[in-house]
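thread: overnight batch results

M.L. [08:02]
morning all. the overnight job finished for the chain we discussed friday. pasting input first so we're all looking at the same thing
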Amino acid sequence: MSALARDGTVVIGVLGGIASGKSAVARLLAGARGVVLDADELAQEALDSAPVLARLRAAFGRGVLDRGGRADREALAELVFGDPEAKRLLESWIHPLVRERIVAGLAEARAAGRAPVVLDVPLLLENDHEHGLASSCDFLVFVAAGAAERERRAVATRKWRPGEVARREVAQVPPVQKRARARYVIDNDGSLSELESAVRRVLAAEGLD
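M.L. [08:03]
and the structure it wrote out:
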């Protein structure tokens, strides 16, 4: 089945568990011709905007800022994962800004004829009732990686404590449900060359190679 976008711009949503390699797959899917809309990157930009920094200082104190005065995402994560009200408050500031920037990015990509547009949005399904981005995708891709491997990556590259992946995923749609929503499953327990081959097969199947 090939992707047929009405305006010629194919939109792909990437799903997967924490530290499964969604961002790497998103970049490979987009290639040189497409564009990745990275919600984590946009969230950092929103966190570091002057209005949000002022709100952070007022609500939580300077302990959630780093030495340079930017938002400290790890400190914020420690705070909000233990305080539902703080989490709700922070999301009420950040999610609308990220949503606006993704919608604007989609419009810019369509105007420029960039394709495919890949949505690297960790909470693509969880917050779809707010942003509707999942339904804007032509198809979804699930990035599969074993729990032990994802734990290893998070500890090695993000410096997370052991068990942090499982703790954070409790608040997300389980990976098995995300997998069921996807048209394609890409395994990311192997080498980079194997991952690249798997992505090429998806693109070929959709006529995007």
